[in-house]
Amino acid sequence: MAEGFLIHIDGDGSCFCRSDESVLAAMMRTGRGAVPVGCRGGGCGVCRVRVVAGRFRLGKISRSHLSAAEQADGVALACRLYPQSDLAITCAEVPPRSANKSEGAISWP
Ligand code: FES
Q: 1 CA to middle of ligand 1, Å?
């Protein structure tokens, strides 16, 4: 089995996330639908989650969709969220309305 971590998703069970994939990719691969999927590249902000436990790193993101203050408060973009330990996340973050209007390829499970 590949190296990775367990992602506990509030209200949506848990899934295994390989160390080289994003939390959003792991959720999509395993059929978890709690987080909306947009650009998958850190540029639309629809996949906002809050990390409530665990260590992680964030890949490149658009600051217009995740401020430094939000990031410091544990908010992350799941498509650019890479676990470095088991994580617990909540999906209660509501993306900014402007993010939904500017993207044409957003899907909600
Ligand atoms: S899906 Fe667009 S920022 Fe994550």
A: 28
